[in-house]
Amino acid sequence: MPFLHPHVTIWFLYAAITLIVYDNVAAADEGPSDSPVGPAPELYQRTTGQGIRYLRGTQADDGSWSHHAGPAVTALVATALTRHGRSVDDPMLAKALRYLENHVRDDGGIYQHGTRYRNYETCLAIVCLTEANVDGRYDQILQKADHFVGELQWDEGEGHERSSLSYGGFGYGKHNRPDMSNTQISLDALRALGKGADDSRIEKALIFISRCQNLEGPHNTTPFATKVEDGGFYYTVAAGGSSQAGETPNGGLRSYGSMTYAGLKSMIYAGVSSDDPRITAAHRWIQAHYTLAENPGMGAAGLYYYYHTFAKALDTIGNDMVEDTDGSVHDWRRELAEVLTREQQADGSWTNQTARWFEGDPHLVTAYALLALDYCRPQPKPQPNQ
How far apart, in whole angstroms, are the C-alpha atoms of residue 278 and residue 232? Predict the structure, then answer.
């Protein structure tokens, strides 16, 4: 769910890794040698434009989309609109931002009263408001929200020392079990606020993230570390451990796509080096499971969340092309844009027939699709080294 480039060395490592080609999307024509990578500009503009027109026609009078879900969906939509060139003076975006402001709470959080998703909603709002903060109008709100998020981390302040399997993670709220999804979204928010790998909250989060990887090593000596050991990531090591993809016969927690891309991205945010075994193991998992046909390990469940995380992670790495095991080079931006164009509804929206995790809501799924497409913008063709 809701972006910056890390060390350049990641690019060189990732460029050397081969990935299995997604064979369910027809390969695009090569085109002339000087053509850009990514989707055809006309296709891209048409697809994104139709999505934005759908959102313009479905915004509620209070400025929200899917207001029953609190500010989270509206924050995602507004972030997508900002990234696709809508100014804060655009009436549609201005109404959405006022709706988010109306959810600012005395404790600094930005959430709906009575919700259990305080961290999730606040972090998505932080990302949105930082991008709309063109004149410093949200400085005070963001400063308080920054403090609020820090108070939700499971650490010594919650009575959890480093040995606790909850240590460093973020959950939906102050006393909710931490998980990888909330943790990666929290790191997105901290990065949006300008925090680097030396921020103590990011350093602590890396401990939790490393323990949610199926990889034994000095950073992960948990009981689950040796039961799968494929380098992928699962939902949470805390509170007895859980994977949305289920367990193996020996009690291991199965890795799956959206959490593996989230884990890789988050480790890069935390400054883990390109040759670290955790990074190389995650790359190997991606190599073995690279696909756009499904959320690997989950099928259609959480598919658009996966698309967004997939695109965000690959963009964070900074690599335009990926190479399959046959040595064929593939343009992941073009492939993903073509999938999303094909799946777009006649009214410009997207939805997932598998409605788990609210993906039956076209506002949420359209926001995910537009955010993913933001990372798929046509790029200048890479030039050979001189």
Answer: 9
Kindly report the backbone phi and psi dihedral angles of residue 332, in degrees, each rounded to the nearest multiple of 5, phi listed first: -65, -30
Residue carrying the six token digits 């992941």: 332
Q: How far is CA 292 from CA 242, 304, 358, 364, 376, in A?
A: 24, 10, 20, 19, 14
What are the C-alpha distances in Å from 178 to residues 16, 154, 168, 208, 362? Answer: 34, 7, 8, 9, 28
Buried b (16+ CB within 10 A) or exposed e, 229-264: bbbbbbbbbbeebbbbbebeeeebbbbbbbbbbbbb
CA distance 214 to 230: 6
How far, in Å, are 91, 121, 360 from residue 76 at the CA level?
17, 10, 16
What Rg do the C-alpha atoms of the chain give, in angstroms?
A: 20
pLDDT for 11 beyond 60? no
Helices (H), the chain: 9-15, 41-58, 71-83, 91-101, 118-131, 139-151, 180-192, 200-211, 257-269, 277-289, 303-317, 332-343, 362-374
Helical pair 139-151 and 180-192, crossing angle rounded to 10 deg:
150
| DSSP per-residue codes, 48-66 | HHHHHHHHHHH--TTS-SS
DSSP states along 282-328: HHHHHHHH--SSSBTTTBTTTHHHHHHHHHHHHHHHT-SEEE-TTS-
Distance (Å, whole) CA 123 – CA 188: 8
Q: Domain ranges in the chain?
A: 9-374
Where do we find the tokens 């209070």? Answer: 62
pLDDT tens per residue across span 266-284: 999 999 999 999 999 998 8
Q: Answer yes or no: is pLDDT of 188 > 60.
A: yes
Task: Answer for the pair 145, 108: CB distance below 8 angstroms, yes or no.
Answer: yes
Q: What is the pLDDT of residue 51?
A: 98
pTM equals 0.89
Amino acid 106: pLDDT: 98
| Res 324: pLDDT | 63
Distance, in Å, from the CA atom of 14 to the CA atom of 34, rounded to the nearest integer, reads 23
pLDDT digits (tens, 9 = 90+) for 42-84: 999 999 999 999 999 999 999 999 999 999 999 999 999 999 9
Residue range 9-374, CATH number? 1.50.10.20
For position 157, what pLDDT does the model report?
A: 81
